[in-house]
Amino acid sequence: MTCSSEITIGGYELDVMRRSYTVWERFEKKDRLIRSRKYPLHWDMPHGEQRMVLEFVYSVTSDVLRKRLGRAGFTRTTLEQEFLRYYETVCRQSGNLFFKTYPDAERAQARADAFRTATLDDWLEALAKTVKADVTRVRRNARASAHPDDILVDIITGSDSPADKELRPRHCLYGFPCSSLDNMAVALLEVVGGEVPCEQNVSMFVEYLDDTTFDDMRLRLKQPTQNVVFHDESDI
Question: Where is the HEPN/Toprim N-terminal domain (predicted)?
Fold first, then answer.
């Protein structure tokens, strides 16, 4: 089993770390939370017998994350600046830019043309559609999401990304014209509400790889017999 840690904003995937993880620097120890959730014992019988599972997460609201990003120097302004640098670097290339011509050269050219003409506001509008429809690259590859009709949504959730190592995305939205994790978070926060949860889930590492990050909280938490939420900041 490959363990992974997901960072999400409003439930939408921002980044995934596999095999090992570090806590994103925008989260703090006081953000730790243990909660119990019920899942089907057998996935092919969603309404059958349930099992209780503990989840170990760092969790804040989007308002809190927005303020922390701002204090670290990441705002709409820095997003705009990175977008312009990214756009200018990519558009120096000719032809299909970084879009693969196989298996559909015509589609690659259409993506390149759309990339050249889109403003940041166009990208944010497409990002809002992406989040609302819960379309991701992984879901598309697993055929759990339909192929997007909107070409910018198609680019955002596609598998193509620039070969230039300075432009390679440090997040899961490969096609969005921004490389850094922090500015990508700013972009997502532009299209979600003020009170949605922003989380990093490390449950697999705690359960399967003996991660000790939550041990002090686990010692004070009895095995739940019903749904519970156990906050670090309110119990230490």
Answer: 1-206
Q: 97 falls in which pLDDT band (50, 70, 90)?
A: very high
Name residue 20's amino acid: S
Question: Which residues, 6+ apart, have CB-to-CB distance to 61 below 8 Å?
Answer: 194, 195, 196, 197, 198
What's residue 144's pLDDT?
A: 82
Per-residue pLDDT at 226? 53
The total number of structural domains that make up the chain: 2
**pLDDT on residue 118:** 98
* Distance in angstroms (rounded) separating the CA atoms of residues 218 and 91: 52
Same domain assignment for residues 177 and 225 = no
Residue 116 and residue 201 in one domain: no
Contact 91, 75 (CB under 8 A): no
> Is pLDDT above 50 for 234?
no
Taking CA 179 as the corner, what is the angle to CA 177 and CA 153, rounded to the nearest 5 degrees? 35
Q: Where are the beta strands (DSSP E) in 41-122?
A: 50-61
Please list, in sequence order, all residues whose beta carbon lies within 8 angstroms of the beta carbon of residue 68, skipping any fewer than 6 positions away. 26, 60
- The reply to whether 156 and 168 lie within a common domain is yes
Q: Which domain holds residue 144?
A: 82-190
